[in-house]
Amino acid sequence: MAKNSNKKLIDVIDKILDACYQHNSDALFILSLMHQYEERGSLSKKQLQGLLQKASKIPDMPANWLGTLEAIILKMPDRHKIAKESTPLANLSQQSNTQYLSVIASILQKYPQHKGALLLQTKCNLQQPLSNEEKGQLKQWEKLL
Fold it and tell me: Where are the domains of the chain?
């Protein structure tokens, strides 16, 4: 079903920014958020969380605006997720990385400035899984040793 273009969408974020500005017109944080919202048309998840904290302290702020802002924040994706528990797949990649670290170490003993080996060593140390192409490259280098 197509949206009716004649209807004007209600911009809750803009209303909350205006209400916060009316409550305290000297707040630099709110001013910077207003400026960025006018420039870009959106705010980041962290900025919206800060706005929610400021708006929730205002006594006459409508609860439905705050609820809508919370829903918008919850909808937004988390950019930096940290694994809380190691999964079996992560354990598998750690075990295979230790296998490749010995090959990388032997390459770096012979060629200490080998950029490809240094890159793969960094990936293994950061517990990042190696692609099949990288594993194949390591096997080729091992044969050349």
Answer: 12-75, 88-144
